[in-house]
Amino acid sequence: MACGEFSLIARYFDRVSSSRRDVETGIGDDCALLTIAEKQVLAISTDTLVSGIHFLPDIDPRDLGYKALAVNLSDLAAMGADPAWLTLAITLPEVDESWLEAFSDSLFEQLDYYDMQLIGGDTTRGPLAMTLGIHGLVPAGRALKRSGARPGDWIYVTGTPGDSAAGLAILQDRLAVKEATHSAYLKKRHLRPTPRILHGQALRDLASSAIDLSDGLISDLGHILKASECGARIDLDALPYSTALKENVSAERALQWALSGGEDYELCFTVPEMNRGALDVAIGNLGIPFTCIGQVGPESEGLQFLQNGKPVTLDLKGYDHFAPL
Amino acid sequence: MACGEFSLIARYFDRVSSSRRDVETGIGDDCALLTIAEKQVLAISTDTLVSGIHFLPDIDPRDLGYKALAVNLSDLAAMGADPAWLTLAITLPEVDESWLEAFSDSLFEQLDYYDMQLIGGDTTRGPLAMTLGIHGLVPAGRALKRSGARPGDWIYVTGTPGDSAAGLAILQDRLAVKEATHSAYLKKRHLRPTPRILHGQALRDLASSAIDLSDGLISDLGHILKASECGARIDLDALPYSTALKENVSAERALQWALSGGEDYELCFTVPEMNRGALDVAIGNLGIPFTCIGQVGPESEGLQFLQNGKPVTLDLKGYDHFAPL
Predict the structure, then answer these.
(1) What percent of chain B has pLDDT over 70?
(2) Which of A15, A75, A262, B85 has a CA between 20 and 30 Å from the CA of residue B284?
């Protein structure tokens, strides 16, 4: 029988370390077979990561194994879904066993952490890239959609957006950060973003809409506003910054990265006035800051920015793979 | 807001031509949301197609749109599943609008034909490649697995394996076929293989195991035998050939391509003796020949080939992306 490809897959990806009860058939047949509990809705998302575009070509395979999954988990978090199954289609230029071992060890460590199971995939030869298909479950009727924001709702963001862009700049020698702890923190925010799964689950009955910050706050909040047919006012003075970011870049650069740096994988969500108290209780103990940065308005007002209480005009674009640079 | 990538996706892939009732949220949120009927099991498969490896770089985008889906549907067919949803992650070297229009038109034509819905995906810049995630539904307990073959079961194959390899050889100028109808037929079997969805559905209660022929009969039957812990005897004289193949290549070449040419996307399946009569009724009216080519035996006998009633030794390998050529 065929040997090379299949033994490669078998060795690194056909692990049974985590075995979920809802997986009737996992890797090894034409399809995986999955059962879904009553009153659960299936949430599916797909992301592709291409070497040189979505990650640096010399990235540590352990960081890549972590980030590839984290980026996809972030989409589940934004829907308030519980992680369940992963498919991994990976294209490799060559069979590098030490690379594969480091990558797959890191991936499975994260799969185990989230009680997820790898249920299938494909391995092909070609330029390094991968497409992950992530599957989660959410109680019927309780998913967090982009379309539920209403005028008057308050706009929140978790964590401190902009850190990931700073971390990337350090990795690419575009930014020098003297203090080692600051440098390590910012790089980690880029290489190992935390998917806000717990926040998503806690927000199910509290937030009116949610999205994760992959392209940048302006671009991603824009998706909420478009889907909800709303406008918004953002108070730029309220944007939360990490100490590491504040102390190492100008205020202008920090603002630019917070609004359009991308890859923070924090959640941006809207909460009706009547749920603000419950919100503080529900996510206040999760150990991550969350900050009110503005308010949803009518669609006719568009997206407005305030600084020192006055409207300002910004010329910032969200990160876009096909946009002219 | 971001413009290039998102308007590109919106224009070519965000169509609502088919709208399934089980799709609560399709394209346009962080995840798609899907509902699954009671007593249905979810079947999931993933395939990557890379330019120059899985399809010729100069392939007509309409053929590519067809084949990318057909190859994935074939995995559902092999499980006896009903097609439901597709995710498409596509990597493009450039935005070529006429290419995108032809590719997506062809893809959606097939999606509509199978009452499927595109529920998500990703578009990135890079060397031409795509990963499809296909989702189907099968009544609980009735999926066709690879592991159910038992000694004594009869081995069948649909259609005429080997045609796809001949079609590829014509397209690559390695084979000259004078008669235009033969040439067109063989090329079509390579470019536009028919996923045997109807056969898979009809086989649910009749076949003890099934697989689709993507790598070649030897390799793929081998997967059934390994999963079922069985051996088999194949009568090489029983292998079905198309007229187009028989009349244009040597008997030896026809045999080689039928056994290891790959990409036929026919079904190979096993049927217990007691179901053979019902089989003739169930798939006899589907218009595609199906042929008994051998019998499952005990694992200790391995995979044996008979020619003129006598055992013969073959040195053929299944198609393997990473195997040395």
Answers:
(1) 93
(2) B85
Structure tokens at A310: 């006055």
pLDDT at B317 over 70: no
ipTM score: 0.90
* CATH number among 3.40.50.1980, 3.30.1330.10, 2.60.40.3360, 1.25.40.10, domain B4-139: 3.30.1330.10
Listing DSSP states for B198-253 in one string gives HHHHHHTTT-SEEEE-SS-HHHHHHHHHHHHTEEEEEEGGG----HHHHTTS-HHH
Kindly list the domain boundaries of chain A, sorted by start residue: 8-139, 146-309
C-alpha to C-alpha distance for B210 and B216, rounded to whole angstroms = 14
Note the pLDDT of residue B53.
85
Longest dimension (CA), chain A: 71
* pLDDT tens digit sequence for A179-214: 999 999 999 999 999 999 999 999 999 999 999 999
In chain A, how many H helices and how many E strands?
10, 13
Residues of B in contact with A29 (CB under 8 A): 79, 145-147, 227
Question: Which tens digits make up the pLDDT trace of B98-147?
Answer: 999 999 999 999 999 999 999 998 888 888 999 999 999 999 999 999 99
Query: pLDDT at position A9, please?
Result: 58
Kindly determine whether residue A44 and residue B320, on different chains, have CB atoms separated by under 8 Å: no
Crossing angle for the helix pair A97-113 and A4-13, nearest 10 degrees?
40
Q: Looking at per-residue confidence, does A44 or B96 come out higher?
A: A44
Closest CA–CA distance from residue A178 to any residue of chain B (Å): 34
Task: Taking residues B69-87, report their average pLDDT.
Answer: 97
Distance of CA A39 to CAs A29, A137, A138, B34, Å? 28, 10, 9, 11
Class (C level, CATH) for A146-309: alpha beta
**By C-alpha distance, which of B23, B138, B111, B131 is closest to A42?**
B23
From A56's Cα to the closest Cα of chain B, the distance in A is 14
User: A121 and B79 in contact by Cβ < 8 A?
Assistant: no
Note whether A321 contacts B1, CB cutoff 8 Å: no
CATH of domain B146-312: 3.90.650.10
Question: For chain A, how big is the Rg over CA atoms in Å?
Answer: 20
Taking CA–CA distances from B89, the nearest residue in chain A reads: A48
For A208-225, what is each residue's pLDDT tens digit?
999 999 999 999 999 999
- Using a 10 angstrom Cβ sphere, with 0-12 exposed, 13-18 middle and 19 or more buried, the burial of residue A95 is middle
Structure tokens at B49: 């197609």
